[in-house]
Amino acid sequence: MSDWKVICKVEDIPVLGSRCVARPTGLDVAVFRNDKDEVFALLDRCPHKGGPLSQGIVFGQSVACPLHNWTIGLNDGCAKAPDDGCAPRFTVKVEDGLVMLDAGELAGHATDLVRPLAGPIRRGMATA
Q1: In what order do the strands lie in the sheet with 92-95?
Q2: Residue 24 and residue 64: Cα distance in Å, rounded?
Q3: I need a surface site. Which of 19, 40, 80, 105 has the fewest CB within 10 A?
Q4: CATH of domain 4-102
Q5: Closest CA relative to residue 46, chosen from 26, 34, 63, 22
């Protein structure tokens, strides 16, 4: 039996948009809403270069990553061919207009993943 954490009301998520859920450990979870009021949740990290999926464009049951336009399925978190890779998904439940996530998954699922850092690695930086 799962413990469910109420995140928000469905209408608090913009149509064709998302809302981020911060976690004490690990990256945020992006909760998406499409034009049919279906709700999905993925780790807010594209499997390609770590782009924030929450800033992508939602269409149908997919989101386009804002960095390189990869199409990520909201049902399974997987990139559409020819791209490859998956973003971890989270179990969502909607009851009486309330969006809920599995509390156990929020606490422990994909907490080891980090967002890649952009830019060159600086080695041997001298201080002035």
Answers
A1: 4-9, 98-102, 92-95
A2: 27
A3: 80
A4: 2.102.10.10
A5: 63
Query: CA quadruple 80, 85, 87, 93: dihedral positive or negative?
Result: positive
Residue 24 CA: distances (Å) to CA of 4, 27, 106, 107, 108: 17, 9, 9, 8, 10
61 forms bridges with which residues in the sheet? none
Which residue in the block uniquely carries the two structure tokens 């907490």? Answer: 111
Residue 122 tokens read as: 């600086």
How do residues 16-61 score in pLDDT, each as one tens digit? 999 999 999 999 999 999 999 999 999 999 999 999 999 999 999 9
Report the C-alpha gap between 9 and 52 in whole angstroms: 22
Residue 20 near residue 99 (C-beta atoms within 8 A): no
Using pLDDT thresholds of 50, 70 and 90, give the confidence band for residue 119.
Answer: low
Cβ contact 8:93 at 8 Å:
no
Domain boundaries, the chain: 4-102
Q: What angle do CA 89, 91, 93 make, to 5 degrees?
A: 140
Residue type, 3: D
